[in-house]
């Protein structure tokens, strides 16, 4: 795991370098995790049309950025989840619990869920951004 102990961009090992943005940005003890979709390391959407699979991968991507900055999931204090399909989200809520616990354990930060008309990646159904305090 690459550890960033200084201010600046955070990039998990093996991820392609983004152009014009950062996957994460650390300022002091605060880490801002940019919106993560269900990309794998080859920037392909995992689980096209599968809300639960995409939610899980996006959440794993958030965790990867947090860990690359030297943090842990329990240091995430705020999360915003953007979804393109309200019904897909509501229909998946029971299945999301086990996925959440697999990736974040029993840590539940302050969260907001926002229904959006679409995301930049056309096959993405969910995008997650977060803020963590790394102490």
- Tally of separate helices: 2
The helicity comes to 25-40%
- The helix/strand series, from N terminus to C terminus, equals EEEHEHEE
- Could you state the oligomeric state of the chains shown? single chain
The CATH class label is Alpha Beta
Structural class: alpha+beta
Average pLDDT figure: 95
What does this structure look like?
- The chain starts with 7 loop residues before the first strand and ends with a strand.
- Strands 1-2-3-6-4-5 form a 6-stranded mixed sheet, covered by helices on one side.
- The protein is globular, with a radius of gyration of 14 Å.
- It has a single domain (about 10-135), classed as RutC-like (60s Ribosomal Protein L30, Chain: A, 2-Layer Sandwich).
- The longest helix is centred in the last third of the chain and has 19 residues, at about 85-105.
- The protein is an alpha+beta fold.
- Helices cover about 25% and strands about 25% of the residues.
Features:
alpha+beta; 135 residues; 60s Ribosomal Protein L30, Chain: A; 6-stranded mixed β-sheet
Quick summary:
This protein is α+β, with helices and mostly antiparallel strands and 135 residues long. The chain has helices at residues 51-68, 86-104; strands at residues 8-10, 24-27, 30-36, 76-83, 110-115, 126-133.
């Amino acid at each position: 795991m690459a550890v960033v102990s200084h201010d600046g961009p955070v990039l998990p090992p093996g991820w392609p370098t983004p152009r014009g943005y950062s996957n994460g940005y650390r300022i002091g003890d605060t880490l801002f995790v940019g919106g993560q979709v269900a990309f794998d390391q080859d920037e392909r959407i995992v689980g096209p049309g599968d809300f639960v699979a995409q939610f899980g991968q996006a959440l794993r991507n958030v965790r990867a950025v947090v860990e690359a900055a030297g943090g842990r999931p329990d240091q995430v204090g705020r999360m915003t989840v953007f979804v393109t399909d309200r019904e897909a989200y509501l229909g998946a809520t029971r299945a999301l619990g086990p996925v959440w616990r697999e990736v974040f354990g029993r840590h539940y930060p302050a969260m907001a869920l926002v229904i959006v008309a679409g995301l930049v990646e056309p096959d993405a159904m969910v995008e997650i951004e977060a803020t963590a305090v790394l102490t």
